[in-house]
Write a structure and sequence with these properties.
Elements lengths: L2 H7 L2 H8 L2 H22 L6 H23 L5 H16 L2 H12 L6 E4 L26 H15 L3 E4 L14 H7 L4 E6 L6 H10 L2 E7 L3 H8 L3 H15 L4 E6 L4 H4 L2 H10 L5 E5 L15 H17 L4 E3 L4 H4 L13 E2 L4 E3 L6 E2 L1 E2 H6 L4 H5 L2 H15 L14 H4 L1 H11 L2 E2 L2 H8 L1 H25 L10
Parallel strand pairs: 1-2, 1-8, 2-3, 3-4, 4-5, 5-6, 6-7
Antiparallel strand pairs: 8-9, 9-11, 10-12
Helix pairs in contact: 2-5, 3-4, 5-9, 9-11, 14-22, 18-20
Length: about 475
C-alpha cells in the first residue's frame, strides 16, 4: 500500500500514537526515504536534470531526518508532537498533490504552497539594513479579520495549510484585542513558521506555543554575540539565548535564521556556528538570507561579494551532505527549489505586507494589488495569482529553467529575478508600472548607480558559479564547459 494511501486511512490520533513508537517511526522514515528516491531520481516524471533531482532528494531526506529528530529527542510537548505528525507531516509532506488536484484540473498548474504574510510593521528593535524598515513607531497593521480570511481562503482555494509569518516582529501584532497566537489557535489545522527576533518569547509565551503545538519560531541571529548585538542592539543576543532555552524547556522546536553580509559570512560558514546552534542550543532547521539591498539604509556595499557567495555555497553544500542538517539558503538554494519561487509559482509563494499590498516576494518590493481592495471588490487570492504582473514573472521563471528540458536549464545557483537578474526584474516592474512598497524601494528604482551595480553583481556571480553549476548539477566535464 502506498504511503500516502496508508496515511489517509489512519486517523490523526492513531497516527500520532504510532509515530511515538521509535520502531514505527524508523520504519516510516525508511519507507519515506525510499519513496522520495524512487519518485525524484528513478521516475523523475517532471524531467528535471538528474543531478538536481539527487540534490533535492538529499535535502528532503534531511528534512525528514530533522522532523524525526524533533519527534525522538524526548523534548517535544504532546500537542507539538500531535501537530507535527498531523499537520506538518500529514498535510505538508504527504498528500500535497491530492489536495491541489482540483486546482490543477481547473487551471492546468499546481497552486502556491504557502504565503508569507507580515501582519504588522511594528518591531521592538531597530536593526541595521532591516528589509521592512520596521521600528517601534511603525503603526501599519493588517486587520485580524482579513488576516484570518487569507489563511482560510488559501486552504479552500489551494489546499495550502502552511503559513510563513514575518514582520516587523510578529509577536507585537495586535488587532481587535487579538495577537498572532490567537490566529494560530483559530487555525489549528495549519502549521505556522514565524520569523522572530525572539526577544518577546518569555516562558509564558513559549508555554502557550507548546499548548498550541502548530507553530515553530525561526529565530534571527547574525553569528554570535558580537555580530548579533552589532546589528540588532546591545543585549539582544542574551535575550535570544534565554528565548531558545524557554522554547527547549517548553518542548517547542525552533530554527535559526541568519542574514549573511560581507562582514559575517566567514563566521556563519564555520563549523562552530552550526555546532553551537544545532547541537548545543537544539535548533532543528536553519535559513540563510543573504542581505538584499532594500529597506532601511539600503547599500549594495553590505551584500556579500560574489567570491563570498561562491564560498558560502560550497560550504553550505558540504554541511548539507556531511552534517545532514536542513539548512537552506534563500538564494544559493536555487537548485533545491528549481529556481525562483516568487509570484505564486507552483510550490512557491507570494508576499502580503501589513498594508495588504501583495508583492511577488518579500525581497521584490513592488506591487499592483492590495488584498483589502481585492476583498472589497468581491475577488479572491486567485485574482492576484493570475494577474498579468505575476504571470509575467512566472513566465520568466519558466523560460529560465522551471519549464525547460534538462539540457536547457540555466544556472540555478543564481535563480533570483530581483537579485541575480536585476535588469529583467527592472523591465517587468517598469512594464506594469508596479508601485514600490515603501520610499526606499522607490528610490532604488530611480537610482541608476544602484541598477548598474545590481545588474553587474548578478553577472559576476553567474560567471563565478557557472562551472560549479555545470559540473555538479548538469554533469558536464570541465573541458565541456563553455
Amino acid at each position: 500500500m502506498e504511503l500516502n494511501t496508508l496515511w489517509q486511512k489512519l486517523s490523526p490520533d492513531i497516527l500520532n500514537f504510532l509515530l511515538q513508537r521509535d520502531f514505527v517511526r524508523k520504519m516510516v522514515l525508511k519507507k519515506a526515504e525510499e519513496k522520495l528516491y524512487h519518485s525524484f531520481v528513478v521516475q523523475n516524471e517532471e524531467n528535471r536534470p538528474p543531478l538536481v533531482q539527487e540534490a533535492r532528494c538529499l535535502m528532503l531526506k534531511n528534512l525528514l531526518q530533522t522532523v524525526n529528530k524533533a519527534l525522538s529527542d524526548g523534548r517535544i510537548a504532546p500537542n507539538v508532537f500531535k501537530a507535527i505528525t498531523g499537520n506538518f507531516i500529514g498535510r505538508l509532506l504527504l498528500g500535497e498533490e491530492d489536495r491541489a488536484a482540483h486546482f490543477f484540473t481547473k487551471n492546468g498548474i499546481y497552486p502556491p504552497a504557502f504565503l508569507t504574510i507580515s501582519p504588522t510593521k511594528r518591531c521592538n528593535l531597530f536593526c541595521t539594513g532591516c528589509y521592512a524598515s520596521s521600528s517601534s513607531g511603525s503603526a501599519e497593521t493588517l486587520s485580524y479579520n482579513v488576516l484570518n480570511r487569507i489563511i482560510r481562503e488559501k486552504k479552500e482555494l489551494w489546499g495550502s495549510y502552511f503559513n510563513v509569518i514575518s514582520g516587523g516582529e510578529p509577536l507585537l501584532y495586535r488587532d481587535q484585542g487579538k495577537g498572532l497566537l490567537d490566529v494560530v489557535e483559530e487555525n489549528r489545522d495549519c502549521y505556522f513558521m514565524m520569523y522572530t527576533n525572539s526577544t518577546l518569547i518569555t516562558k509564558d509565551v513559549a508555554n502557550r506555543m507548546a499548548e498550541l503545538g502548530n507553530i515553530t519560531p525561526a529565530i534571527s541571529v547574525e553569528g554570535f554575540e558580537k555580530e548579533t548585538d552589532a546589528r540588532r542592539g546591545k543585549g539582544v543576543y542574551a535575550k535570544i539565548m534565554r528565548a531558545m532555552d524557554n522554547l527547549a524547556e517548553a518542548g517547542v522546536p525552533f530554527g535559526v535564521s541568519v542574514t549573511a553580509t560581507r562582514y559575517n559570512t566567514d563566521i556563519i560558514m564555520a563549523d562552530e556556528f552550526t555546532d553551537f546552534y544545532f547541537n548545543k542550543k537544539g535548533a532543528i532547521y536553519g535559513w540563510v538570507f543573504q542581505y538584499m539591498p532594500i529597506g532601511r539604509s539600503i547599500t549594495v556595499d553590505l551584500m556579500i561579494t560574489p567570491e563570498q557567495r561562491l564560498a558560502l555555497f560550497k560550504n553550505e553544500q558540504r554541511m548539507i551532505k556531511e552534517s545532514k542538517i536542513f539548512l537552506v539558503d534563500f538564494w544559493n538554494g536555487g537548485p533545491y527549489a528549481l529556481g525562483c519561487i516568487s509570484a505564486g509559482r507552483p510550490g512557491g509563494y507570494f508576499y502580503i505586507d501589513w498594508n495588504g499590498n501583495m508583492a511577488p516576494c518579500a525581497f521584490f518590493p513592488y506591487y499592483l494589488s492590495n488584498i483589502n481592495d481585492i476583498y472589497r471588490e468581491g475577488k479572491t487570492l486567485n485574482d492576484v495569482l493570475f494577474s498579468p504582473y505575476f504571470e509575467s514573472i512566472r513566465k520568466w521563471q519558466n523560460d529560465y529553467g522551471y519549464r525547460q528540458p534538462p539540457e536547457k536549464v540555466n544556472n540555478l545557483i543564481v535563480p533570483c529575478l530581483i537579485r541575480d537578474h536585476f535588469d529583467s526584474a527592472h523591465s517587468i516592474i517598469k512594464t506594469f508600472d508596479a508601485k514600490p512598497l515603501d520610499e526606499n524601494a522607490a528610490q532604488a528604482l530611480q537610482d541608476e548607480d544602484y541598477r548598474r551595480r545590481m545588474a553587474q553583481y548578478g553577472k559576476d556571480v553567474h560567471l563565478l558559479t557557472r562551472d560549479v553549476w555545470e559540473a555538479e548539477f548538469m554533469g558536464k566535464k570541465q573541458e565541456d564547459v563553455a
